[in-house]
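ESCALATION

Customer reports they have been waiting on this structure for their group meeting. Please prioritize. Original submission:
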Amino acid sequence: MIIGAGGDAAHDGLPVLIVTGLKQEAQIAAGPGLTVVCSSSNPIQLRELMTTFDPSSVRGIVSFGVAGGLDPALRSGDIMIATEVVAAEERWLTVAGLSDKLVAVPQLGRHRIVSGVLAGVEEVVLGQVGKAALRATTGAAAVDMESHIAARYAARHDLPFAAVRVISDPAHRALPELAAAALKPDGNIDLWKVMRGIARKPSDIRALVSSGRDFNRALRSLRGVRGLLDGSGEFAPADA
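Update from on-call: job pushed to the front of the queue and completed.
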């Protein structure tokens, strides 16, 4: 779903398209000069949204939200600016000038701002083993389910692209399956499904609590870097 569209943007007056996976991310991102798309963590839904979107109506694309950590050195709340996005055999470079500018922003408290490779996947990577395998094959520091779709769309339409992602679940954290299964199509959490899942498997409570703390920490950090989107008017030309 498209959450909102901005008004007067810098340069040619067109907004920047912000691609998110969760409703909370979309709400944080929304603001003047920005058009926000939320996939509800559904790659198929995101592709359908993008096919109905007019690429001439925006001047660039930014993937914005939380990500799973693949690099063991990254903690929840750390901010990653992608240098490139990789999915299967494809790779897309981000706009170097914009990425460099974002990395130069002062650190937010104890949360670091780092640059690195971002992996795109079609399903949530839940366990430590899966995360380690993905890092070994891609060299990526983090993973999400939207950036590769946004990057491919940007490349197809010759639009500049960048990705700003905050680590939610670090590499050592194994997400309970319930955390992914309880997500509604509109991006909200199905609390009844969570409660039923806990009733069936009470041992998931500790993992859910830890994941919830990580996620809330990531959202606070994401709010802290929200201002970076207002500088997205610094996009270099698409052929830079």
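Sent to customer with the following note: The chain has one domain: 2-175+215-234.
Escalation resolved.
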